[in-house]
């Protein structure tokens, strides 16, 4: 079953605006507005609700999605029988081992230049639920974004693509990282990401902010072990907080992030978790995303608005599932989303111009494309509907209502 709350959009509350809009007014008054509907928060679901959701939210893509085991019915905010404590693997991804050598997989290069965590950060990781530690808010100067779609210059497309391809290998999460978190299932992650989509919609944040937040979430969980189920939402909330600071001109204030969790977490907990997350990611925030690659491909080979929005919809759906999509690089996922959208709308595939530009052939894209097609077909019947609801609007040409092709004929 799953953690999450159904995040209820409050029409009476002011929402911060994204880049294109004017700066938001002071939120002190808006924060006090009466809610029209009580949120269902992590940890307050009844046992019957938990059991019901657990039976309906299995994932066809991951062995972690199975929640029939009764030991998995208690999570996020519920008492756990597990005696696990949160800690960092000192001989693995984050910290140097006793031999002085860092053990990192060549395929993912998660923390190639990471330096050991100080005691204060280890303490925070080991006692997320404690309120005795001092605030540990870290101020930092964000890196320059790898690519700005709004100021994209075609003359630099090849250089931008080369840089993104080189960078994406350094900013990948490990596909099987959930094996290191016994209290967290893939189904929990699905509900968390679905909730993040709703929050992004309510606060009118950009799609790139969402993609970055999910990247930060997955990379953080790749670098840690035994994260408790009642802290997964805290990690997800802070991942979105940091992504908004990095990507948005007017990010929501800290009070807003306390509010969206129905005060489940305090400012102090958010700030302390922010410090830990930044440290664990080595302050490397300029992660290439599927969204960046997809918009770059569209700039190189333009497509109609319907096809473009359908590709963005498919790319966003892929954020829900860690298995199998974490095994693919963002550039391959973007190519797969582009191909699937183009075939659905125009019965075309991967144009020759993008074969030349990317170096990817249809044979290389097809395995990922097949998984994306299965996900697209199942989207309508999944319990999590936030992405579909978002792309049902006229802003996105109602593309989530377009019927997926029943089959994909091989080229």
TrEMBL record:
Keywords: Cell cycle, Cell division, Cyclin. The keyword Cell cycle applies. SUPFAM superfamilies: Cyclin-like (SSF47954). Gene3D superfamilies: Cyclin-like. Residues 288-405 form the Cyclin C-terminal domain. Residues 194-279, 292-374 form the Cyclin-like domain. Residues 8-28 are annotated as: Disordered. InterPro entries: Cyclin, Cyclin-like_dom, Cyclin-like_sf, Cyclin_C-dom, Cyclin_N, Cyclins_cyclin-box. Interacts with the CDK1 protein kinase to form a serine/threonine kinase holoenzyme complex also known as maturation promoting factor (MPF). The cyclin subunit imparts substrate specificity to the complex. Essential for the control of the cell cycle at the G2/M (mitosis) transition. Belongs to the cyclin family. This is Cyclin N-terminal domain-containing protein.
């Amino acid at each position: 079953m799953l953690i999450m709350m159904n995040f209820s959009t409050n029409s009476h509350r002011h929402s911060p605006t994204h880049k294109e809009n004017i700066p938001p007014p002071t939120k002190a008054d808006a924060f006090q507005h009466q809610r029209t509907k009580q949120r269902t928060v992590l940890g307050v679901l009844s046992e019957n609700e938990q059991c019901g959701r657990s039976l309906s939210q299995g994932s066809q893509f991951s062995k972690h999605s199975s929640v029939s085991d009764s030991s998995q019915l208690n999570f996020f905010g519920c008492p756990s029988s597990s005696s696990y404590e949160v800690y960092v693997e000192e001989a693995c991804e984050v910290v140097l081992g006793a031999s002085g050598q860092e053990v990192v997989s060549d395929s993912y290069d998660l923390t190639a230049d990471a330096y050991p965590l100080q005691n204060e950060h280890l303490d925070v990781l080991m006692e997320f639920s404690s309120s005795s530690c001092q605030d540990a808010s870290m101020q930092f100067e964000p890196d320059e974004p790898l690519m700005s779609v709004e100021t994209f210059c075609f003359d630099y497309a090849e250089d931008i693509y080369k840089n993104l391809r080189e960078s994406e290998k350094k900013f990948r999460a490990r596909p099987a990282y959930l094996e290191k978190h016994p209290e967290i299932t893939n189904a929990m992650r699905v509900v968390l990401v679905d909730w993040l989509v709703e929050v992004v919609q309510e606060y009118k944040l950009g799609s790139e902010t969402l993609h970055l937040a999910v990247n930060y979430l997955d990379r953080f969980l790749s670098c840690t072990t035994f994260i408790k189920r009642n802290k997964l939402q805290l990690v997800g909330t802070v991942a979105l907080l940091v992504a908004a600071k990095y990507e948005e001109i007017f990010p929501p204030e800290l009070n807003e992030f306390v509010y969206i969790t129905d005060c489940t977490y305090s400012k102090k907990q958010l700030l302390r978790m922010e410090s830990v997350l930044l440290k664990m990611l080595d302050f490397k925030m300029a992660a290439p995303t599927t969204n960046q690659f997809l918009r770059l491909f569209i700039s190189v080979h333009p497509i109609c608005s319907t096809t473009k929005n359908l590709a963005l919809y498919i790319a966003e759906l892929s954020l829900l599932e860690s298995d199998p999509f974490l095994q693919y690089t963002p550039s391959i996922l973007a190519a797969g989303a582009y191909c699937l959208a183009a075939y659905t709308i125009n019965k075309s595939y991967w144009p020759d111009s993008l074969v030349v530009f990317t170096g990817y052939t249809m044979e290389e894209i097809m395995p990922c494309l097949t998984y994306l097609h299965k996900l697209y077909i199942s989207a309508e019947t999944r319990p999590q509907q936030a992405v579909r609801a978002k792309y049902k609007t006229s802003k996105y040409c109602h593309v989530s209502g377009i019927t997926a092709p029943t089959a994909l004929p091989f080229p």
